[in-house]
Every structure is written in structure tokens, then in C-alpha cells.
Amino acid sequence: MLRIVDCLTLDHELSLILLAGLICLLGCTTCMIVGGRVMSAERSLLWMSLLSLCAGCTAWSTHFIAMLAYQTSVPISYDFSLTVLSLLVGTVVVSIGFLVAFRLRGQRLFRAMGGVLVGSGVAALHYIGMDALRFPGSLSYDMDLVVVSLVATTLFGALSVDILFDRSKASWKPAAGGLMLLMILSLHFVGMSATRMELGFFDAETGVSRTFLIAGVTLASLTILTIGIIAAIVDQRVSGQLAAQAERFRVLADGAFEGLIVHRDLTILDTNLAARKLLGLDDNFSERCLSDWSIEALEKLQMDDDAVIQEIQVRGDNGTDFPAKLCRRAIMLQTGEVGEMIAIRDLTQRRQSEARIAHLALHDTLTDLPNRRLFNELANSAIARARQINGSFALLAMDLDNFKTVNDMYGHAIGDELIQLVARRMSALLGDGDVVARLGGDEFSLLSISANQPEQGMALANRIHDIFKSSIELEGAQLLVEASIGIAVYPMDGDTLEDLMRNADTAMYESKAEGKATTRFFEPRMNVQLDARRALESRLRQALELDALTLNYQPLVSCSSRSPVCFEALLRWTDAELGSVSPVDFIPVAEQTGLIVPIGEFVLRQACRDAASWPEHIRVAVNLSVAQFGKYDIVGMVRDALESSGISGKRLELEITESLLMENQNEVLAALDELKALGVRIAMDDFGTGYSSLSYLQSFSFNKLKIDRAFVSNLENNPQNASIVEAVVSMGKSLQMRVVAEGVETSAQADILSALECDELQGYLISRPMQAADVQAFLDGVSPYTGEDDSPSLAA
Fold first, then answer.
1. pLDDT tops 50 at residue 541
2. Are strands 704-707 and 738-741 parallel, antiparallel or unpaired?
3. C-alpha distances in Å from residue 714, one per residue of 192, 667, 746
4. Which residues have a Cβ under 8 Å from the Cβ of 365 and sit 6 or more positions away?
């Protein structure tokens, strides 16, 4: 060791030693840059040649600059051929070493062997260069230091090259450069310490002078510098491009919906952002194994060049499994080994969407009850089971009474809330195996699977009726709804689903026709009645389209003067096939089907047009239906009818019933206020037959009260009826309302009403309803009432 120190400090000029070290450092750094390009560039052989040349020139320049720094008093020169040979041999051997290490870089042993060859090439360069030395004397070596120099240079060479061509140690490149620096410097200075120069008395052979050697070393150094500068520029540009490309691919990969995983033997090498989120990985995921997520099944599958697509269950970090779709492909890793790329997509949302779509296909979107399709499947299954066990079940058809009125009055939002509420309440009533389905609108069907039919079906229907015993409040509105239910029992009322549903519907329509809010079992006779009702509905629609409906008018006369003051419009229908159809028969059908709305508009407009030809003091009265309020602009309809006919609002009376106020009092009263602002008179029809007439009189100032005919009939023989009429008349006068008595048929009734100071009379005693063309004749020929029941002018 002391000899090596003495060699450095005493036998060499320090400035040139530092220059040699600087050249060596520069050359080794250049070798590392060029070596990096060898690993990543497509033209690896070109960069391999530059790497070998750079390494050879670095070792050669370092050696001879250090030789120039060697201080001696004897003249020294260098053999030209050996000097050049040292460069060539060193470069060639170094090239072979680099080539072996690069070609077999996948195995560390061969990388180390290549490094040994590189160290050997540097050693060959050094000792051939020493043999080129010419001076008056001879050289000898201490073999122990020679061996040390050879061991050191090959060891450092093996370590340096092993790191240089190992992709997994890319961050260790500075260490590789340092080891290469030690390889060259240790060889030279340990080798120089082993050298013995023995002077003689003979002339030194003529060789290359120091000046020529300086030129050669300068050329080699410039070569190193040139290669280094070019390599640095190329490396900077290529590194920038690669970094930008890598960032672009990273952004692209992190933006992918699928998780991307690169692994080798199930050990994760790289992932994108989606995969880290999917598997719960942080940025420190190295050495994690895919088996942690129950993907070890991949290990058992044979991979080939084609992509493999699988669907498996993956266990998340929270311990729950989720379905995933995997696309797999074998890839070549940077290390030269075969790995695998996995694209993994979480199918949880897709499965949920598929399940939701399947659910929506079989369930009603508003109530989440089974829809018609699912109900048919369940009902057919019930039929199949009943056939096997010779059993029975009940099919119930249910329709909400007054639902259309709720929609018209409050809008579809409230109607939807009502349907949802009813659906929830009915679902709570079901027994095991029972089913309730919404078929559309306010139409429901139920299956009562329980034994002991038809009693259990009736019991279920009664429980449903209990739902509607009290009013339903939604957003402050009191809704009075009921249910009409029809029941068909398998197999008595049909052995197919089509027959059962048709017969249950028939029984339900029978329930509606008999007053609603009831339950009826199917009876064969109902089909005849249903067919007749459907025919009536069809003919009524045609009559409305063909303007086959007409109006008759019944007069209202002043009780004191017996002069006409008003005519009430009454709807009439004479059909070509059915003949004259009573309003008692077709008005309920119109209300149930919604035809009452366009029919009511026709009545209003036609009555105003007819009244336009009457004297100015004669008014016309029109009845309004509940369905005409709510979402229909009744005020606008009345305004248009008045404007188109040309009559003033004070000539129009609109008659409403208490049931209208019961449905939606606030909205109805607001509409009535607007109508009164047009000058229209408002009358309460059938007064005394509702639930809370007095409260309505308190809420709205009606112009007229019409006493129902039930209190007028038998007035002369029933003191109680007379007392009721007297009370109504007295109350009307105190509230400044005119009072009309309907259904006056006898002179005795008229006399009593006159005595009670009733304001107006209406009934067959005055006149039967007449056609519009007869109104003017009635006005021209009528005389004050004489009290004779058989007067042809009054009874006609």
C-alpha cells in the first residue's frame, strides 16, 4: 500500500494526475450515458460501438496522461506500434465484454462475465502500453501487485457492467460509473506501483516522443469529449421525448376506465390509477401479489399470444367480492422476460344496471309493484299449481273511484302520490303468496292464493275497502276516494288467465255501476250488461264526434209573478240504433270514461249560443261537473263561451253540487270567485243532500240555492218537508240568496211554496223540458199561473 502511495505522490506530477483523473471521470460518465442509450435505443449496436470506443479511449487516455505525469530523469519514448496496439486490443476486448453482457443481460452471471472481459481489456491495454515504453534500461514487475491490479480491475469491471445492463437498477447508474472509474484508476496506479525500471548503459530505442504522445492523447481525449457531448445532447433530447411519451402514456393509462396491471408470476410490477383504486393500492405497491385479491386462478391458466377474456370474482380490500371482467395478454418486459398485462373492469355497476333493467321490465316504475307482464307470469304459475293440486284461487280487479277527478282537480303529481300510497297500503295487507300488481293508471290486480276461496278473496277485498274508510290527506288536500273491486275465482269463473281477468274486470264494472265502493263476484249475467255498457260508451263517443247530442230547456219562473226568468239546459241524446237514451244511463258512463269534460264544454257553448236569441232579461242555467274543474281552465272556458256567443256574464247561471266543494274546496272557491267577477251567477244545486251545506254557504256567497226535489215532493202532505223548505227559504233570504224549488208538479205544492215566499219554481207543473226552437214560443204564449193542474199550456 505504501508503494502505491509513494507512486502517486513521489513518482507522478500531481497536476497531470488530476488531469488523468478528470479525463477518466469524464470518460466514465460518458460511458454511463451511452450505456443508457444502448439499453433503450432501437439501434443498440451503433451505441454499443460508441460505448466500446468511449471506454477504450478513456482507459487509453487515462493511462498515457498518467504516464506523462511519471517523473524520471531518463529520456523516455514510446513504441508506436505497441502504443496503437494497446488502444486497439483494449477497445476490441472491451467491445466483446460489453457485447456479451448486453446480449445475455437477462442473467447476472453473463453480465458479470462480460464485466470481467471489460476489465481484462483495460488490463491488456495497460500492460501493452507499458511494454511500449522505451528508455535506457529494462522493466520488471512485482507480481503480487500485478495480480492485485488484475483482480481489482476485473472485479470492478464485473460490478460496473452488471449494474449498467440491469434494468432493475436503472437508478444505480452513477454507482456503475464510479466502479468503472475505480476499474481504470486502480489498474493504472497499482500496475505502476508494480513496475521496476532498471537503468543500463545502452541507448534507448527510438520511439514516439512525448510530444507525439501528447497529440495522440489529446486526440483520444477529444474523441471522448465529442462522444460525451453528442451522447449528452442525444440523451437529453431522447430522455425528454421518452419522459413526455411516458407521461402521455401514464395520463392515458390513468384516464382509462379499466384497471391496468403489469405483473410477472403474479407479482405486480406496475399499475394505473384505476387499478390502484380498484385494489386499494397505494403508490408503494412493489412486490404485492395478485393472490391478495383472489386472482391467483390466473396462475393456472395457459397464456398464449392471443388475448384471453375472463369474468371472475375479485375480493376487494374490504373483504367483499365483486364481479370483474379481465382481458389478459402476454407482453415482453424491459428485462427481456415475459410478463402479462391485465385489464380489469369492475362489473358491479353493470350487474346492478342489468338487474335494475330486469327489475324495471317486470315492475311498475311508479309503485315498484309487479307490472302486467310479471303479474301474468305469476298468475299463470298459480293456475299451473292449482291444476296440479286441484285447488283454487281468487283474482281481484280493482279500480279507484273518483281517481280521474283527483287528477283533474289536483294534477298528476298528487294523483301519482295517491297511487303510491294505495300501493304501499295494499302491499301491507297481503298474505303469504298473495300478489298485488299495478296494470296502469288506477287499475290494480291481486291474486289471493290462500285456501278457502272465495271467502279469502272477499276478506282481502274488505281489508282493501278499510283503507279508504277515512279521507286521505296529501299536501293539505283531503281526498275522498274509494275502490270498486271485482272477483273471479279459478276454476269456477274461468280456467285461463284471459278468462279470469276479463270476468274480474266485468265484476268490477258491475261494482262501479251499482254505486262504487263495493265488491262484486263475477256472475255470467254480467257479461251481457258489460257488453251493453261498452256499446253505450262507443255510441256516446260517436254521438259526441257527430254532434248528435242536443239540448232541451226547462223554465224557471218567478214564484210571485209566474213569469219566466231562466231556462236550465238539459242534455238529451237520441241514437239511431239505441233510440232515446236517458241521461240517467249515459251520464254515469260519460263521467267514468272522462267524456263528461268535452260534453260539458259542448253544453256550455251551445246553451250560450241559444240564449243569445232570447230576451235580455232571460238567463240560461248550466250544470257543471266536478271533472271540469282542476287542471281544466273552467274560467277560460266560460269566458270563451260568453265572448263567442255575445251574451253578458249576468245572463249565465252555473249550477254546482256540494260534492264539487267536497273534493277541493279552496281551488273550487277560487275558480268560483273568478267566475263571479265575470258577472256569472253561481247556484248550489240539490241543496240539503250533502254533508256540510252550511259550511259551504259560509265559505262562498252563492247567488241561488236550489232545494232538492226530495223535499218538494209530497210537500202538501208532509209537514216535515214543509218545515225544511221554510228553514231553507228563511236562511236564503237572510244570506241574500234567491231560493228555487225543484220538482214542482202540483198546484198545491206551488201554493205552499208561494206562501213560504220561495223565489222561483221549476218542474213539470210549469213545463216539461222543451227544444231550443220552442223556447221563444213558450215565452210568447205563456200567461201567469192560474193554479189549474190540467192546464195544457203548463203541462205540455
1. yes
2. parallel
3. 149, 38, 9
4. none
- pLDDT of residue 257 exceeding 70: no
Confidence (pLDDT) at 245: 65
| pLDDT attached to residue 472 | 83
Q: Closest by alpha carbon to 760, among 721, 714, 703, 722?
A: 703
Beta bridge pairs of residue 448: 394
How many domains is the chain built from?
Answer: 4
Which residues lie closer than 8 Å to 387 by C-beta, 6 or more apart? none
Confidence of residue 283 (pLDDT cuts 50, 70, 90): low
Domain span at residue 325 reads 255-352
User: 58: which 3 cell numbers?
Assistant: 478513456
Domain check: are 103 and 128 in the same one? Answer: yes
Q: For residues 127 and 89, is the Cβ–Cβ distance under 8 A?
A: no
In the block, cell 239540448 appears at: 551
Question: Considering Cα of 188, then 190, then 193, then 197, what sign does the dihedral take?
Answer: negative
C-alpha cell at 699: 265559505
Q: Which of 128-137, 233-242, 432-441 has the lowest mean pLDDT?
A: 233-242
- Identify the helix (H) or strand (E) that includes residue 502: helix 497-513
Cβ partners under 8 Å of residue 425, min gap 6: 467
CB 374 within 8 A of CB 363: yes
Contacting residues for 524 by C-beta, under 8 A, at least 6 apart: none
Alpha carbons 664 and 452: distance in angstroms, whole number: 42
Which helix (DSSP H) or strand (DSSP E) does residue 263 occupy? strand 259-264
Nearest to 22 by CA among 86, 88, 69, 80: 69
Please state whether 517 falls in left (phi above 0), alpha (psi between -120 and 50) or beta.
left
Cβ–Cβ contacts within 10 Å for residue 269, how many? 17
- Closest to 489 measured CA to CA, from 458, 527, 528: 458
Q: What is the DSSP letter of 300?
A: G
Clarify whether residues 460 and 554 are in a common domain. no
Secondary structure of residue 447 in the 3-state scheme: strand
Based on the domain organization, do 563 and 681 belong to the same domain? yes
Q: Which amino acid is at 556?
A: L
Residue 7 and residue 153 share a domain: yes
d(CA 84, CA 463): 114
Instruction: Compute the distance between CA of residue 663 and CA of residue 478 in angstroms, rounded to an integer.
Output: 7
573 SS3 class:
strand
Supply the pLDDT for residue 4.
43
Secondary structure of 515-564 in HEC code, one letter for each residue: CCCCEEECCCHHHHHHHHHHHHHHHHHHHHHCCCEEEEEEEEEECCCCCE
CB 260 within 8 A of CB 341: yes
Q: Give yes or no: residues 508 and 469 share one domain.
A: yes
- The answer on 384 and 322 residing in a single domain is no
The DSSP bridge partners found for residue 479 are 472
Question: Which residues, 6+ apart, have CB-to-CB distance to 164 below 8 Å?
Answer: 32, 35, 101, 173, 176
CA neighbor of 662 nearest in space, from 784, 507, 479: 479
Q: What are phi and psi of 691, to 5 degrees?
A: -100, -30
